[in-house]
Amino acid sequence: MPVGKRIYLKRQMPDPEVVKAYRELPASNVADCMERNSAMNPRIKLMSSPKQEMSGPAFTVHTRAGDNLAIYAALRYAHEGDVVVINDEGDTTRSLIGEVMMSYLRDQKKIAGIVVDGPIRDIDNLQNWDLPIYATSTTPGGPYKEGPGELNVPIACGNINVNPGDIILGDPDGVICIPRQDAAEILPRAQEFHKQDDAKAVAFSQGKVDLSWVDESLKEKGFDIINDYYGN
């Protein structure tokens, strides 16, 4: 088997109802229920104007830096509802995908979104699209089409490990990865956390909150509270 030039057609997939339920939750609340270590690096930013959060199973793409032949293969093999997640090996000099390819993914494949750990182009039009599009930056410089590359293998995206079939959740804050095998267990905790977080925001807004724990924590950690001006 030619390692580096493999296209896997099968993935272990999450429960579609679980995927749908995550779409109703902020990525931050879900990340907090995963010990705050599931968020992709903030270099990956929302580039479009979707009307709802992105949630879908990861269709992973590992490209050679600055090359998009494997992404063209994803145009062939991605499925409706997938989130195409692309590892560009850290390259920041060449766009991997633009309006032409994304039009196919949006209109023909009906994917749920795309996450590129690298640049894209044609942002003048893509920024107005309803399709969730995440990338690091933009550049007019185009890619090569030589390969190698792989589909549906484990990758890293935004410094986070992503396996095929993991749930990718994105909103204006950014993108997180929810391991497929843990997603059903995390969901009810995240739903309850979301309810509590909403109530907490109301309580803070109305001043109905006890912050005495802050003083206790500062004292415990050795902070000095000085009733004087700096420099005196």
Brief overview:
The chain is an alpha/beta fold. The protein is 30% helix and 21% strand. Strands 1, 2, 3, 4, 6, 8, 11 and 12 form an 8-stranded mixed β-sheet that branches. Strands 5-7 form a two-stranded parallel ribbon.
Morphology call: globular
What is the strand tally? 12
Based on the structure given, which CATH architecture is correct?
3-Layer(bba) Sandwich
Put simply, the count of helices is: 7
Estimate nothing, just give the exact number of structural domains. Answer: 1
Helix content: 25-40%
Main sheet: strands, sense, barrel = 8 strands, mixed
Category from helices, strands and their pairing: alpha/beta
What does this entry look like structurally?
The protein has 232 residues and is an alpha/beta fold. It has one domain (16-193): Glucose Oxidase, domain 1 (3-Layer(bba) Sandwich). The chain has seven helices and twelve strands. A hairpin with a 2-residue loop joins strand 9 and strand 10. The radius of gyration is 21 Å and the shape is globular. The model has no long low-confidence stretch (mean pLDDT 96). InterPro entries: RraA/RraA-like, RraA/RraA-like_sf. This is Putative 4-hydroxy-4-methyl-2-oxoglutarate aldolase. Homotrimer. It comes from Lactobacillus colini.
